[in-house]
């Protein structure tokens, strides 16, 4: 069954799916490259990059395009720039906000390909789409390499497929409306053939994992609010940095776009600070409510909002992951899938024992999964500038995962315990 029938003119054969996939995602690659290159061209025409010709500027744009896809760049510094001997470094700090550009363009392509494909033929369109994207990435890596910037052709071909492939799958899934119409596999029938105990166990685990995702998303959302508050309170300091840079209107606009692209990274950094794990801004530095040690920083206006100095009430920020855990525990209570508590109550009649034990186990499961998701977010948001001491930026994934797991787990226990009082309906007066 076709996902969506598309009228064809009489006598005109339909475009092969692999070719349509090639066209759709090739178009997405070109559009994302133009969105990266146009600001650089604007700065070039405004008098910036005076030492570069247009070919060199195009290579810089290609390097930026690869960077927003997550491709690391190997930097080589001549003798005398960072020391007496030549130095090398790896630039692996990716602006996650700008990575959304190829993601959403691929999401649009995935929807269009899903409308044009039969259920059992979508793989042809996806194969053609990812194939052309890999070719474009490999070509960009090969053509944009210089003596100062080394790029792996294999990384250029494979790494961009992560963002593009995720966008394709999400877009196709949204257009299809279900995995059955997308890939032809009905998971509901497979689950129905399992035993009742297996379905109960699966429902419990699936609800707990979703509650863990709720906890992580809530923690990131609350951290985003904290980040916005910090930016608003330090707006004057940020403005003064802009004035000292004196980059002009166009240069200031490009710098602001870069900062906006880094906001998802900073949101994860804020969660690292609020959890107590902290984050690093270079070798030997740590910023957290428990300890703050910072060295010289680059002149980036957004860094003027850093929480530096003695903070008497910094410990209050540790409540952010706990509050997220409370929301996750309350959400799980409303989901009503605590089959482990029901099973334990049948096996052991002492309710004073089964209720706390099942709640603690629930908090452990949800907290661990939230910690895993937070560690993954930290891994994406951290990186290296490959320059001097700035080889370690962002929170440590392991520490952030452990802190978030513990704090969200505590919040889940609280939220699940107090949830019944929050769910009580008001008594109707007769």
UniProtKB/TrEMBL annotation:
<keyword id="KW-0472">Membrane</keyword>
<keyword id="KW-0812">Transmembrane</keyword>
<dbReference type="InterPro" id="IPR045931">
    <property type="entry name" value="DUF6350"/>
</dbReference>
<feature type="transmembrane region" description="Helical">
    <location>
        <begin position="89"/>
        <end position="110"/>
    </location>
</feature>
<feature type="transmembrane region" description="Helical">
    <location>
        <begin position="400"/>
        <end position="422"/>
    </location>
</feature>
<dbReference type="Pfam" id="PF19877">
    <property type="entry name" value="DUF6350"/>
</dbReference>
<feature type="transmembrane region" description="Helical">
    <location>
        <begin position="25"/>
        <end position="45"/>
    </location>
</feature>
<keyword id="KW-1133">Transmembrane helix</keyword>
<feature type="transmembrane region" description="Helical">
    <location>
        <begin position="149"/>
        <end position="172"/>
    </location>
</feature>
<protein>
    <recommendedName>
        <fullName>Integral membrane protein</fullName>
    </recommendedName>
</protein>
<feature type="transmembrane region" description="Helical">
    <location>
        <begin position="57"/>
        <end position="77"/>
    </location>
</feature>
<feature type="transmembrane region" description="Helical">
    <location>
        <begin position="313"/>
        <end position="333"/>
    </location>
</feature>
<feature type="transmembrane region" description="Helical">
    <location>
        <begin position="353"/>
        <end position="380"/>
    </location>
</feature>
<feature type="transmembrane region" description="Helical">
    <location>
        <begin position="245"/>
        <end position="262"/>
    </location>
</feature>
<feature type="transmembrane region" description="Helical">
    <location>
        <begin position="122"/>
        <end position="143"/>
    </location>
</feature>
<feature type="transmembrane region" description="Helical">
    <location>
        <begin position="207"/>
        <end position="233"/>
    </location>
</feature>
């Amino acid at each position: 069954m076709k996902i969506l029938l598309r009228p064809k003119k009489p006598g005109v054969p339909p475009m092969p799916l692999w070719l349509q996939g090639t066209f759709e995602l090739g178009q997405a690659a070109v559009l994302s490259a133009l969105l990266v290159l146009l600001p650089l061209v604007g700065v070039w025409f405004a008098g910036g990059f005076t030492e570069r010709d247009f070919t060199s500027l195009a290579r810089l744009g290609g390097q930026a395009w690869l960077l927003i896809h997550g491709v690391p760049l190997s930097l080589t510094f001549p003798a005398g720039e960072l020391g007496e001997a030549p130095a090398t470094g790896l630039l692996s700090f990716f602006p996650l906000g700008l990575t959304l550009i190829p993601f959403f363009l691929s999401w649009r392509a995935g929807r269009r390909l899903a409308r044009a494909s039969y259920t059992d033929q979508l793989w042809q369109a996806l194969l053609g789409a990812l194939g052309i994207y890999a070719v474009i990435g490999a070509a960009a890596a090969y053509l944009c390499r210089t003596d100062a910037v080394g790029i792996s052709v294999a990384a250029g071909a494979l790494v961009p497929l992560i963002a593009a492939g995720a966008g394709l799958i999400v877009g196709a899934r949204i257009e299809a409306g279900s995995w059955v119409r997308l890939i032809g596999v009905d998971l509901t029938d497979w689950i129905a053939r399992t035993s009742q105990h297996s379905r109960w166990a699966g429902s419990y685990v699936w609800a707990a994992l979703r509650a863990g995702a709720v906890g992580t998303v809530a923690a990131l959302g609350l951290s985003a609010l904290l980040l916005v508050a910090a930016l608003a309170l330090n707006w004057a300091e940020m403005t003064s940095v802009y004035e000292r840079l004196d980059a002009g209107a166009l240069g200031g606009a490009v710098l602001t776009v870069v900062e906006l692209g880094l906001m998802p990274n900073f949101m994860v950094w804020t969660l690292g600070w609020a959890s107590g794990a902290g984050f690093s801004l270079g070798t030997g530095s740590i910023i957290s409510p428990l300890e703050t040690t910072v060295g010289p920083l680059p002149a980036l206006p957004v860094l003027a909002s850093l929480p530096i100095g003695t903070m008497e009430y910094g410990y209050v920020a540790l409540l952010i992951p706990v509050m997220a855990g409370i929301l996750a525990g309350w959400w799980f209570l409303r989901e009503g899938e605590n089959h482990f508590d029901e099973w334990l109550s049948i096996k052991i009649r002492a309710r004073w024992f089964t209720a706390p034990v099942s709640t603690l186990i629930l908090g452990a499961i949800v907290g661990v999964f939230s910690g895993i998701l937070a560690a993954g977010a930290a891994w994406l948001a951290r990186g290296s500038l490959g320059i001097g001491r700035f080889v370690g930026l962002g929170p440590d994934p392991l520490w952030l995962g452990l802190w978030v797991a513990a704090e969200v787990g505590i919040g889940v226990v609280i939220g699940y315990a107090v949830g019944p009082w929050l769910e009580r309906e008001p008594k109707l007066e007769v």
